[in-house]
Amino acid sequence: AMSEQWDVGRALALSGLFRLLQGAGRACAAPFLTLYLRHLGLPAPLVGVVAGAKHLAAALWAPLCSRCPKGRRKRRLLVASSLLGSAGASLLLTLIPPADGDAGYKYCNASQQLGDRGAAAATVPGPGTSSHVSAVTNAKATREPEMPAPYSPPLRGLKKETSGLGSAAIDLAGNAEESLYPTESNELSLFKTTLPTAGGSYESGNLSDHRKDAQGVSFEAVQNIFQDREHQIFLMVLGAVVLWELLATSLEWTVDENLYEYLDFVDATDRYGKLWIWSYLGASVGACSIAVFVDQLNCFLSSTITRLAVHFYGYALLITLSLLVSVFFPIHVPKRTDHVNKTAKALALLWSDGRAILYAITVFLTGAAGSAVQNFLFWQMQDRGSSELYMGLSVAVGLLAEILLYFFKGKLLRTFSSVKIVAVSLSLLAVQLLCYSFLWTAWSVLLVQILSAFSSGALWWVVNMTVDDIATPGMERSLHAVLQSLCYGGGASLGSFAGGFVMKHFGLAVLYRAWCVCLVLWLFLILIVQSKLPRQKKINYSRLLAADSSDMSDSDEENERDWLVKAMKDESFN
């Protein structure tokens, strides 16, 4: 045991480096996933389904990952296979051809041309402008013959694009608006493929023919779904993303559980709580670095691969580097294994406390509301002429703001009550959503993202502190895991499923404002219910010890309790 205690510092350093690489790798790809799916030509409802399935798969798979193998060699093999598997699954996404060959070209150039739309429309194209237009036209022309024959898209509007930069920018602006605001023609491709067949079934005259045709229509509708180009791409993307998330979740949980068991063995779990800072720092650096690199590339790396594929190449590279770090991890296999279903026990503990129930519903709603930002904010920024640098900075600003606020955590929790912090957090999240619905320029996102320090970071301080008060020994991590699953697996997945359809039919601004109203209503409700709940009574060790001394007289019992309370307060103060 003494030799392993000497390795605590090395284990924490290796874990910090591993989390730094993991955070950077995740931030290279995960925030830009929905943007990549847009370049593949998938509409908002299908993108929402993919994002929701991703969150749901992680939440359902996480409890199973907590049961690590017993042997050290098996654990190392699981970590290595999960690392390589997650890297390979992310690369599968780059091999999927686009459903619409024009989509990647349109959105890639939209941000640059929309940014210069005002100047281009007000001036006559000069030599530099005409050369730029010809370069864009030549890039597209050279790209056309390389497209596979069955999937080669018609070059719609090519004459308009070459007639001048101003008209091209206006056309691109119109296309960008169609992606965020609904029109009568924007319907799901499912109905597009099935309605003509359904219309043909009503031409027969008798009822039996109607029934036979209806059966044939249902079969042909299902067949059309799988034969439709867009749905084929959707199914391939869905499979690759779910596989990627399962392997990444397995990796993170295995490494995390192994480290916690090791620190618990050497009695150093108090140093575990700040390791998340390394993940946030890595994510901040990774998101900005990959964004700067991608901005320097051409729109297409090949005939069917957009430059956004570089995000997944970066993820695979950083994950491979973290494999080298994982080789040196110290592994401790506990002799005693607990087979109790901690998930069910954690749910029972949450259900037994009124405040815990309120906070569980709160994290569910914040996860659902936050999914709208995670899934479609980059779409909105791209249509406002944003480069990827602003997108990467928006990720970094939110994470760094949480880190900076963390250093004032103790002072804030002592100064303000839990209810006030939750109220401020929900209010600021509603303000964020309202600001996004009126987004005027891309750089304004950076200012709004600063509010994430409270709307996300401070909220989770209170939630975790509340569940720690009701947790029985050994149940703290299980309670935190259940709440994380409620937020991301429950709230974020449901919000993603519904968000894509709301955006398709009502627009992104309506989606943001709807969640803003929901959060404000929940804020009023939680304040009313909180005031009706009985005051929270914490059970501490002094009461438990005093309760065991039943043979003492009343005066002796009171003196003993006072002595224990005073001793514990002095120890905690020191």
What topology emerges from the helices and strands here?
Layout: H1 2-5, H2 8-29, H3 33-39, H4 44-65, H5 72-94, H6 101-115, H7 117-122, H8 127-143, H9 158-163, H10 165-180, H11 189-201, H12 207-227, H13 229-265, H14 276-295, H15 310-326, H16 342-351, H17 354-383, H18 388-406, H19 409-415, H20 418-437, H21 444-449, H22 452-470, H23 476-506, H24 508-532, H25 541-548, H26 554-573
Helix pairs in contact: 2-14, 2-15, 3-17, 4-13, 4-23, 5-13, 5-15, 6-10, 11-12, 14-18, 16-23, 17-20, 17-22, 17-23, 17-24, 18-22, 20-22, 20-24, 23-24, 25-26
Mean pLDDT: 77
Helix content: over 70%
Q: How far from one another are the termini?
A: 28 Å
Could you say which structural class the secondary elements and strand pairing correspond to? mainly alpha
DSSP helical segment count: 26
Subcellular location: Membrane
GO cellular component, one term: membrane
Family: Belongs to the major facilitator superfamily. MFSD6 family.
GO molecular function: transmembrane transporter activity
Describe the structure.
The protein has 574 residues and is mainly alpha-helical. 77% of the residues lie in helices and 0% in strands. It is built from 26 helices and no strands. Helix 14 runs antiparallel to helix 18, helix 20 (418-437) runs antiparallel to helix 24 and helix 25 packs antiparallel against helix 26 (554-573). The radius of gyration is 28 Å and the shape is globular. Mean pLDDT is 77; it is low at 1-5, 115-179, 181-205 and 540-557.
